[in-house]
Amino acid sequence: MKIGIDKIGFATAQYVLNMDDLAESRNVDPDKYSKGLLLNNLSITPVNDDIVTLGASAAESILSEEDKNTIDMIIVATESSVDQSKAASTYIHSLLGIQPFARSIEMKEACYGATAALDYARLHVQKHPESKVLVIASDVARYGVNTPGEPTQGAGSVAMLISKDPRILLLNDNSVAQTRDIMDFWRPNYSTTPYVNGIYSTKQYLDMLKTTWAEFQKRFNTSLADFSAFCFHLPFPKLALKGFNKVMDKNLPEDFKEKLKENFESTILYSKEVGNIYTGSLYLGLLSLLENSKNLVAGDQIALFSYGSGAVAEIFSATLVDGFKDMLQTNRLETLKNRIRLSVEDYEKLFFEEAAIDSEGNANIPEYKTGAFTLKEIHEHQRIYGKVNDK
Hints:
Elements: E1 3-12, E2 15-18, H1 19-25, H2 31-34, E3 41-44, H3 51-60, H4 65-70, E4 71-77, H5 88-96, E5 103-107, H6 113-127, E6 132-141, E7 154-164, E8 169-179, E9 185-186, E10 195-196, H7 198-220, E11 229-232, H8 237-247, H9 254-267, H10 269-274, H11 281-292, E12 301-308, E13 312-320, H12 332-336, E14 340-342, H13 344-351, E15 363-364, E16 373-379, E17 382-387
Parallel strand pairs: 2-14, 4-5, 4-6, 11-12
Antiparallel strand pairs: 1-7, 1-8, 2-3, 6-7, 8-13, 9-10, 12-13, 15-16, 16-17
Helix pairs in contact: 3-5, 7-8, 9-11
Keywords: Acyltransferase, Transferase
EC number: 2.3.3.10
Enzyme class: transferase
């Protein structure tokens, strides 16, 4: 049975921080961000925009009423959960009006969680061919002011509809995963921001890429020559570039190496404007590739490297199907230009503002601009979401 991604959508915050502005405020050379990280802008969420609103907006942009009546599983992958018990997918299920007899869960393993969700979704459709599974990777990457991680923040959500006979790409039946018990990036329950060992994490990312890729090639008797593109997890685009250089086969013909390089450049276009979206970063890279590559055709194979600190990595592959371009958007970069540009002072106020909860667990939420959905209030410790402009 052919199973894969039938539709894919994206949503991000309505506010943006320019990296040159941040560099000037932090007294660093702008090249440190523009060339050292390959970043231009970061999406910034206000207090009424979170993984639920972003995830619902991303899914709403692609789902038909027929989809909502057929979906029988919603999986949200995140490391920015709004509740230690209740899954974000239950809120999204309600906001989207998906039929009631559906399973809703949340998955976590740092930035790897969405890949685990895809694996689960594919197995579910394999067992229940008429089912559709909505997989949402939704995160707000948040670090402290003037910390090393600050320029690698961001926010966004990628929604993918998994079904049989997909119209974008097939998920191939080949993958290799690897686990290491390491402390390169983590966030204890008592901390609102993560702890990061940046240099160590970079080394682990690249070493797990190298060793997992070697095992993948050995198990499936394949090589880079069999793929038209390679997508990477994108905590920041420069790290993905290092990964691309690590897997590059110097023995490939020059024209083929150039094709791979062109397609790699297509994978990072959106991340350069949005920043880090944790679980969705790999899939934002995939979306960026599909919507911006000039040479991909049906039948092309794409390799994907997923990485989540802690750490779990997986390499798998997908095949483009006939008509995939008809399912994509062509003006997304232009749309990103419509975000509201923040001063650094406004960014610090907006991004780190928290709901002021009173003794009864109530809070009025400021009405900042969001996508289709917003956090309206907190009432008796319960988060109340709704469509924008709905009373």
